[in-house]
Amino acid sequence: MSADPTADESADGDDPTVEMAEQAKADEPELDRGLVEAWAAKMISNPDRAYRATFYVATIFFLVTTLFPFYWLLVVALTPRNNLSEVGVFLPAGFNPAAFIEVFQTLPFHRYVFNSFLIATIATVAVLLVGSLAGYVFGRLRFRGRNAMLLLVLVTSFFPPAAFFIPLNRLFNTNVDVLRPLISAGSLYNTPYAIFIPLSAIFLPLSIFILMTFYSQIPDGLEDAARVEGTTRLGALFRVIVPLSAPGVATAGVLTFISVYNEYFFSSLMTDGRPGSWAPMLEGILRFQGEFEVLYNLMAAASIVAVLPVAILVVVAQEKIVSGLTTGAVKE
Amino acid sequence: MASVTLEGITKRYEDVTAVDDMNLEIEDGEFVTFVGPSGCGKSTTMETIAGLTLPTEGTIEIGGRDVTNLPPKDRGISMVFQNIALFPHMDVYDNISFGLRLRKYEQEEVDRRVEEAADIVQLEGMMDRMPSEMSGGQRQRVAIARAIVRNPDAFLMDEPLANLDAKLRVHMRTQLQQLHKELETTILYVTHNQEEAMTMSNRIAVMNDGELQQFDAPLTCYYRPENRFVAGFIGSPSMNFVEGRVESGEIATPGFDVAFDPGQVPELVAGDDVTVGVRPEDVYPAENAGELANPTRPIRARTDVLEPMGDQIFVYLVLRGEDASDAEAATTEAASARGADELLMSVEPDSDLAGDEDIEVVLDRRKIHVFDTETGDAVCHDILRSEAMGGEPAGPAGGS
Q1: How far is B85 from chain A (nearest CA, A)?
Q2: What's B163's DSSP letter?
Q3: What is the mean pLDDT of residues B228-249?
Q4: Do the chains contact at B86 and A332, CB–CB below 8 Å?
Q5: What is the CATH superfamily name and number for domain B4-223?
Q6: What is the pLDDT of residues A24-71, one digit of tens each?
Q7: pTM for this structure?
Q8: Taking CB atoms and an 8 Å cutoff, what residues of chain A touch B82?
Q9: Which end of chain A has fewer CB within 10 Å, C or N?
Q10: Helix crossing, A47-78 with A35-45: angle to 10°?
């Protein structure tokens, strides 16, 4: 008894489909479909397959384009020096992991990496500090000329960095007597300042913009509460607003760090390239390019080594970003 | 514990004046409520007292100390916010102890005080919960604990119960009153809910359009409102207003006349345009008029909508006009401007009134308020000058 109605229902429900299938069957012999047409018809009748196929194609494409260069770096790095002319595309011509040690023996490459790391860290701290103050002002205070000033700040990031280079290079090569007690030569050339000052300035507008957006979303009540409880406006910024904007701060920080760490133009021109002159990682890689020979395998190995600190940082920061996002989600 | 004094506080934004020349003297240990419709400046007043915004003019004293230009943290106040404003990235303990830790108290002292505060608001055993894991009422209690833990001179509360559901709100209301009794600290409380204001406070500051309308005990505001705004705002449902004109020996309105003795009530000058105010509970069906010592003459009306509330029924009446006053009604130009022919009456639940029924009602003449139609100021209350209401000649209302 109980089975009958369901059976009836399902039969009713199936009816149109069955009809359609029959119709399709009847139609099919008349169509003389090519291979592509047949495939397209199959995809149209079953779009889920099409979506899945597209997903895999896109994913594989992105994975290949992003990861293959790294793989090929590894291939080149492992190829022994003598076989460099016949380096393969997928497999190294020989196996020479010693290149990763040679990198540090030929040059103090670790010093170059350290220089870059330090410069990027200082730049990130400076950018986050100044960016937080500016982001707070633009995001949370209302005053006359706010939009005009914000536009002005953003406009500076539209200039090509090269436009700043010549005046800055002249400036940093000038001996300033006031700086003599701090810097032996009295000029900023060959010091980390020569790199992190211009780079901080160039990457600051973007961070200001990111932080402004995040800070403006913190409810006023929280800042008011902090101020009544005993902080100044500045205290409220660093004790309440910044921790609650962790994802934004992490984003701005990671972007700045990677940009400064990877920067080419100022990094290659603001020092004389010696590790003791605070030359960054990039100079170190270029130093494997000799007068008569380019040590591609060592350059490749050095590149891989240089990527590691950033990769680790991003993985760590990513966790922070994700946890920050979830705390943000449950905010009142 | 401290008194709070506002002198000529004015807050002007570019094109609006949010608070206009506020003068208040709040005594030590008083529970004062700022009440008014949204946008009346009550929250702005609170913010200027807290120091979150600086007044354009005027001075603020807390405990006899001029704090007008001090930052919020140095004013000796604490505040509970409408959106509760717990720090979402800190647990309950860190939230409550935030202010103490900033002031570099000893760890033991912090622990002791936090425990004490948590005890008062019944939050024991929740110290390591995050705000996101708590219910609205619990969060509110944390916010209150955070406010009391520092032993401030005065508490400021800006609509602290607005985001709670109705049942919890009533519960927290009593809790706040108990808290006030226990701590004996000055409390300044902002609400747009006149019921909260009536039940909790020692005195109410009624505000409208940035101006202080009346600053008195709740029942004074209820029985002797200084102007039409206060009369309409305090009391629920609100007072009926009917515009009319003073004639010799009576106030004539399009729907009815109210007789008075000109010798007893000199404030009523013949020819003045006045508004008669009467609360719904002071309107009675004519058959119950026997209970009243001084009813008006019967007023003919037709019932419209009935709203049974359980303990009473609100009846909307449409006045049909007295035959005698028809001619006069025509001459009273100011009348009929706004629903002047409507009255709200509240009757006992056992009443057998139905909708669309012709009845006669009377008003209690002792409970009639008269306001100047133009200025809205009260002209007089109780047009009989009966002993029961204390028959001082003009009353405080006459002056303003």
Answers
A1: 5
A2: T
A3: 88
A4: yes
A5: P-loop containing nucleotide triphosphate hydrolases (3.40.50.300)
A6: 555 555 556 788 888 888 888 888 888 998 999 999 999 999 999 889
A7: 0.76
A8: 221
A9: N
A10: 110
